[in-house]
## 1
Amino acid sequence: MAALGSPLQTLRGLLRELRHVSGCAYRDTAAYRHVLAAFRAHRVTSEKLCRAQQELHFQAATYLCLLRSVRQHQALHREYHGRGERSPEEVAGLVGFRLPQQPGGKG
Amino acid sequence: MNEQDFVAVLWAAAALRAPCVGEKGRGPNLPSLPFQLLCFRPPERKRFYQNVSISQGEGGFEINLDHRKLKTPQAKLFTVPSEALAIAVATEWDSQKDTIKFYTMHLTTLCNTALDNPTQRNKGQLIRAAVKFLETDTLCFRVEEPAALAELQKKEWDPIVAWAEKRYNVAIGSSTSIMGPNIPASTRDIFISHLASYNMWALQGIEYVITQLKSLILSMGLIDRHITVEKAVLLSRLEEEYQIQRWGNVEWAHDYDLCELRARAAAGTLFVHLCSESSTVKHKLLQD
């Protein structure tokens, strides 16, 4: 079985990610309700080794990984890759030149 | 009109056009060269909806953006068989802020692929494509030098290969030659018959994970819940991680790729599990 850590940590992480997604109204979202209901439903069981519980925990950990990595990927994209190309004026300005002004337009 | 004529037309259009530097409302500035025009990115779609909700229809669960029903790129109605998957897709659409970034919506993309089947492959073709990856499985290609990397590969990859061999009762092995390991036909047949037990949607997800991780063995480890997504991605990128340890980490490249691979692998795995499960809750009566 995969080394997953405690279900409580996974649940906390998931709720934190959902809060990042939805902001203040995260408690009204369907995802929040579904996650909490799923965790509650699989908590109490008379079996000692509950396969459904482990399956749910793995799914929750996978979803947490998805939300977290999408958020980190977007943050990295915004920081490093989001600015697009420089205009020719900016490029010229990098080395201290200015573009020529041609009043008649280009030939 | 062939490609050269097309480029010639674009060059003429660009030459006649005034430079578009300073044009407003264009997004990133576009120098007027045909090469850049060929790479022109259309302006991003703004978020045009306030609320995202799900509803149950005849074929399954549907996503509603305000009052409009979501459709696939081929204009089919977007229905998913599982409620949890629908909620996850709705959360993806809800998480878009000002503009819609389709490249972050991995579950939506997977559902669209499953619904539209744009490559028009049937189940047999998908399974064959998936099992074909075994011949070029990352875990089976070992280096001889540097010795530290060879040692790391042996230490990290051998247990997973051994697990797969034991779990599926097959012989895989590994190889240091450029041709790779010799996979016997019985191994291939066993994997083909195992994958045949999954439905079409789950198979799309499995094939996606295999293509992203470049390894059938790691994907089966994920599907069988033997390893976590983070571990699978680490094993898939083992050589890169080794080089990062040696030469240093470049955030805008290494971390960027790592996060993207984790997101795709997690989305694929979640998609497979949500499409191939069916859960029922039975309430036991307390007897005192």
Note: The two ends of chain A are 71 Å apart (CA to CA).
## 2
Amino acid sequence: MDTSFSQVAWLIPLFPFVAFLLLLAFGRGQRTLGVLLGSISSFAGLVLSILVLIEHMSDGTKYYQYSFKWLDFDGLTMNAGYEVTNLTALMLVVVTLVSFLVNVYSAGYMKGDERISVFYSYVALFSFSMLGLVLADNMLTLYIFWELVGVCSFLLVGFWFSKPEAKAAAKKAFIVTRIGDAGLLLGILLLYWYMPDHALDFVHIGNVFDGQTGIIAASVTTWIAILIFVGAVGKSGQFPLHVWLPDAMEGPTPISALIHAATMVAAGVYLVARTFDIFQASQTAMDVVAYIGGFTAIFAATIGVAQNDIKRILAYSTVSQLGYMMMALGLGSMTGGIFHLFTHAFFKALLFLGAGSVIHAVHTQNIQEMGGLSAKMKITTWTFGIGTLALSGIPPFSGFWSKDMILNTALHEKPVLFAVGVAAAFFTAFYMSRLFFLVFMGKPKGEQHAHESPASMTIPLIILAVLAAASGFIQTPWNNTLGTWLTDGAEKEHGGAGIVMVISAAVGLLGLYLGWLVFVKGTIARDAISSRAPWLVRLLERKYYMDEIYEALLVRPLRGLGYLLNAIDEYIVDGLVQLVSGTAVWFGRGGTRVQNGQIQTYGVVTVLGLIVLLVALVGRRFW
Amino acid sequence: MLADLPILSLITFSPLLGILVLLFLPKHRSRWLKATAIIATILPLLLSLWLYADYDSTKGGKAYEETATWLDVSLNKEAVGEVGSYQFELQYHMGVDGLSMPLLLLTAVVGVMAALASVHVKKRWKSFYIWFLLLEIGMLGVFLARDVFLFFVFFEMTLIPMFFLIGIWGYMNRERAANKFLLYNGIGSAIMLIAFVILVATAGFRAEQVPEKQQTNLSYCGSYEVITTNLTKADSYVNMSTEQTQGQENPFYLSERMRWVIFLLLLIAFGIKLPIFPFHTWMLRVHTEAPPSVVMIHSGVLLKMGAYGLLRFGVFMFPAVAEDWKVAIAILGVVNILYGAVLAVVQKEFKLVLAYSSISHMGIVLLGIASLNEIGLHGAIIQLISHGLISALLFLIVGSIYERTGSTELKDLGGLARSMPFISGILLTAGMASLGLPGLSGFIGEFLSLLGLFDSQQAVTCVAVLGVILTAVYVLRSILGITFGAMPEKLAAVRDARLIEAVPMITLLAFIVLIGVYPAVLTEPMKHGFDTLLQQLSEKAGR
């Protein structure tokens, strides 16, 4: 075979890495260099990724894998490498596309910031790490990049480091995901010692767990799968480790679109999909994934209803949608999970960038302080509207098709989760219509001089709007293109989608209609619920008190333990040793007192010494 | 050609040249004194790099061994009957192997960086640098010695300069800290000496046949090789119990229990240095009271001598005992990790955070040692090197920050990323390395240690992994506290790094990244470093 594009796929992460290095070296005080390098490198990556994807969509073998020995000594060989499968090819395009658009968008959004080149260098480092994660051919390489994207996320959340909120959010993001990472690390340790030949690459993992020959005991398989999932829970903001994601909205909005909506937070879903064979080998693990995903979907969607910060609503929406993806995976539909990841990347990036455009115009994030923006921001309004419809699952927009596929699977596998999914879909549509109507409809509030954003910001919006509208058609109930392509047709299809389509569309429309009734028409009073059940609203506003629970169960006890041990360290541990040294001094004093010139004293000491010697000599025999 | 030179002695004693020059310089010419000292530390670095380049791991360090008789003490021949000679040999014996090579490089690198960081020293430069260079000779010698008494001499040689460096150039409570340092380490040395004497008197005994003269030469010596071979060879005197010698009393016999005792003595002696909980309180004082450049040496190199000694004498000489004790060592390691980490979370002083962090990180080394397999032992050594570089870097930064702000209390600091972006960036990266971010050296050591330990002690490893989370908590709490957030008014005018500060920072960071990205720089010379040990362990397991 001639050189294929897949063979040079390693170039894709290299482009942003070079951009990062150049910015690190020459970025100081530069204003345009970042925009230039970031856009060019991500565009180059995008072009190559598309070529790779096209190559993978055509017939013939195109799988390519390359690895080299990274850590190598007697007793251990760890490889690092990359491989290009259909799944990775798809992810490459998603990542590079969103990354390119965000790079362009940031040129407008971050224009006034004096540290813009630092911003671009972080984004470049992130793109590198994320693409490395996607391309990794084994668990260790993946883990390395997994950690690196986490750090980039941390750096960008804390980009405006002087703000105490940004500092706290960055810290929280890092530590909470670190909890998940610890689980993933243990999973890798377990995998290493149980895999034949200690192989960690996905091909071998697939072979070992796929064969159902019981090479690895069932309980161990379950543990490995669950520990890997713990990593995914942290990264993808699943309950109960979701708490960092809404706070991460302290970062610049383009970052929320790129990292905290489209790419990095989806890495958990991607990880589960990559190691899907392990999960499929353990029904327990699959159930855990499905129920955690389903629970997260409804849990976060209900919180989204009661928030007022435009970005936080979208953040909870992201958590909820990631829950859908996990649920799909847990129900055995990798296609469903990846499909939703794919469409979600576009419409959620669109919504965040749209929100950024709004914030750019009105300088507030509180939707209660906004209103009537549709007159002044036509493009933003229209594109945001498309995003809203896609997220709410209104046909024929992309979100409808992917959500439909998940709900359809749920109906066939676990009807309970179908019910949960439908309920979450309703809440989703409701909070989105609340958001949309409050921001764009009604009367303008306050002295706002809102204006449409510059072209560098609106053009990415338009491109994403087209994708959010149309990208769902790669997989419909009548045409299983994506499923066949991703899984070689191995996954079973669920027919009879008609009823599910009707229900999911109806629920979405109902949610939107209700929102219209409340926030535009005013038929239903806005305080209809808060006046009758204030505790419920407060519960949702306070996000089910999750932060408080963490504070009480983990943070305070840890701090308390710290203070306790600190006291022990100071007074007891140190004190004991002081005592020992004090004793030595006391002995010394005693020794001087013994030397008093009196024969009797000397005689006693001699006898004592003799006894000690005798005991020592006799005692030696027993050793 | 390198083998023709006494390269190891050259490395060890090259700082003497600096001392000689310093002696003849007037004591107020601080620039000259500093320059001389820095050059004197660069010499061993260059020589060690040369050695590193020339070192062939398949052959080991045999080619470079240097031996000379230092002192032969004749013992009473009549006591043992017809022999050719009967004596106690003190050897000057230097050598290098897979275990000491990485540590030698670490010492040389940190030495130069600490000398550069000593530009902040404010008084009595001449004596400071003389003590400093003596300290460096001691450290280099510790890792290159191949004889227990020579080791002991070099080990003691590090104590006295440290005592003065802390006691004269330290902060407020420097004298108490110096006393405490000497007290603890003195006790450690005494215990070590007891263990060494027992070892030499039993396993150090040799009987060499001289066929042409038809007589036997009897001797005691402290050579690592002799002691290790005697201890592991089945038919050597130390291994002959009374039954095997047909009822004859064998004064050289080391019973199982005696071996345990020696191992315990070594564990305590080196545990104080490492430090192992609860022997750690002295090092907290040193971390807070010694001048930062001295702490770079202390935390960067001196603590590593503890782990090195534990490996070299404890594990290498008593693999069977280590095997029996490995669960205990692993638990000690976990206690260190968690105890250090939890305490680091609540400290209010940045230097104390780093001190407790050192305790926590040395716990990882214990885990690697406790694994007693190739992976974990590699992990332990890499963790030593990595922690040495990282803590040297961190204390370098501490020195620079203190120089500008006059405080290392967390409450006094904040928002420094605004006024000193370069130092803050390096500090953040060093913190990331410390919490084990892949791509930086900390990850490799931590990962390999955990991976190695997981093979035999899964439960302990799981608990140890909690440390990974806690490390992130205290590193971010302290470092973000310094660099992020609002900046106190009075810090607005502080300047970013000067060139003389930036150079060592970048250099140390470069090494940290190099090991993280290309760990073969360390694993390559370490190859075959553990061969004999692992062979003995597998023999024991086979039996």
Note: Chain B has a mean pLDDT of 89.
